[in-house]
Design a protein that fits this description.
The structure is a single chain. The protein is an all-alpha fold. It contains 2 helices and no strands. Helix 1 packs antiparallel against helix 2. The mean pLDDT is about 90.
């Protein structure tokens, strides 16, 4: 039983993920800016708690973002490996003389 991988489908999904990751990066930046603006607008007993929570949230968003970026890079690596292997197999098949 053979297996076929549609590498163009994988490439398309990778492009979609790259676009999503760029958009998420923009949104994270926007959220961080808004948190900073909100912090500047107020001073009071809850500010210290807000800053602590905001810092933790920013760090978690950064971690998730970096993990998503890593996954896109892994897909790219797998795609290149598959294309290389596919080329090697094609070369071997061409080399067979019947």
């Amino acid at each position: 039983m053979g297996m076929y991988v549609d590498i163009s489908l994988l490439a398309g999904k990778k492009r979609e993920l790259e676009s999503d990751v760029r958009r998420i990066e923009e949104l994270i930046s926007q959220v961080c800016e808004e948190i900073d603006q909100l912090n500047k607008m107020w001073d009071g007993p809850g500010q210290k708690s807000f800053l602590k929570t905001a810092a933790a949230d920013k760090e978690r968003m950064k971690e998730i973002f970096l993990d998503m970026k890593k996954r896109v890079e892994e897909i790219e690596t797998v795609q290149k490996e598959y294309e290389s292997c596919e080329g090697e197999v094609a070369d071997l098949i061409r080399a067979i003389r019947i």
